[in-house]
Amino acid sequence: MAPSLDDESSLFNFVVRDGNGVKGIVDSGISKVPRPYIQPAAEQINKKNASKCEIPPIDLSKLDGPEHDEVANQIVRAAETLGFFQVVNHGVPIQLLDTLKQTAHNFFGLPAERKAVYRKEVSPSPLVKYGTSFVPEKEKALEWKDYISMAYTNENEALQQWPMECRDVALQYLKTSHEMVKKLLDALMANLGVELDDSNIDAFIGKKMVNMNFYPTCPNPELTVGVGRHSDMGTLTILLQDGIGGLYVKVPEDIDMEKKGEWVEIPPIPGALVINIGDMLQIWSNGRYKSAEHRVRTTSTKSRVSIPIFTSPQATQKVAPLPQVVEKDGMAHYREFLFSDYMNSFFGNAHDGKKSLDFAKVNFS
């Protein structure tokens, strides 16, 4: 049964409690966006005003040859400026990427009751959560997105607890991308004077999670957002986007680049993966690397999927700017904290640009 679009509590129950998600609203035959999803004018995305990011993708296969230093420098430069870049020849099979996109469509095409079993309040596994928007109870306007989130502890638990409809392909994506993540982190850490090896890599990427995001078609995409302005809280995010597009990144004000302060679209490149720097890398680098502020637009033409892998420290890990960087800089711009405390702050608030970093900033005033 379709929800009453005018009654916020009935709409909320239909979408969130009953597991229908935004897809359920769209499937009910709406012709306009329900009021709770209409963003304030300042948050709406004007597609006509945004330009595309023209930076070519980085060829990761060259890291293994004579051009290693040049490619490592490209990775570092991207981390120091936009905080976003695309990679090709990354070692994740293209056929797997195609299967992932189809699997995401298939999962969100399941009946609502099959997805609703994984809602946070009732999920049979603490590793799996199906939801909609980001923090619906804290948001002034809801995001036009449904998702399934799968935390990775070990392969056995993933095989037993992740949804069977997407378990195998999500696990393969996680495993085949691990070498690429190590290479990227290796280049970024080497530039900060840290050598990565098996003994310390978990301190940076010991926690991993695969999400599948679904952005249903929207009758008034100019009024909504798929995801609001935010930076990712972890170390590195690896993102597979489909061919539809709609991912926008804000060019930081404090770097030497064109279009400072503007939003640029990260155009889909067939076979490429999008990499973005998270808050933890900004903190470890004492602000040299920029966690990227980004958001997602909705579309009226076709439902969009994206599949991110989030890597971060374990919850019990202490995080602070690296001592060798602080020594060079003369002072630490961030304080030490437990990653679990950062997570609680991050998930306790609605998306609001890069305000998540305020939790760790040292106040010099």
From TrEMBL:
All residue ranges annotated as the Fe2OG dioxygenase domain in the record: 200-313
An annotated Gene Ontology molecular function: metal ion binding
Transmembrane segments: none
Names of required cofactors: L-ascorbate
The entry's keywords: Dioxygenase, Iron, Metal-binding, Oxidoreductase
Alphabetized Pfam families for the sequence: 2OG-FeII_Oxy, DIOX_N
The keyword Iron is annotated on this UniProt entry: yes
Biological process (GO), any one: coumarin biosynthetic process
Superkingdom in the source lineage: Eukaryota
Cross-referenced Gene3D superfamilies: B-lactam Antibiotic, Isopenicillin N Synthase, Chain (2.60.120.330)
Family under the similarity heading: Belongs to the iron/ascorbate-dependent oxidoreductase family.
Entry-linked PANTHER family: FERULOYL COA ORTHO-HYDROXYLASE 2-LIKE (PTHR10209:SF753), OXIDOREDUCTASE, 2OG-FE II OXYGENASE FAMILY PROTEIN (PTHR10209)
Protein name, UniProt field: Fe2OG dioxygenase domain-containing protein
Organism: Gossypium mustelinum
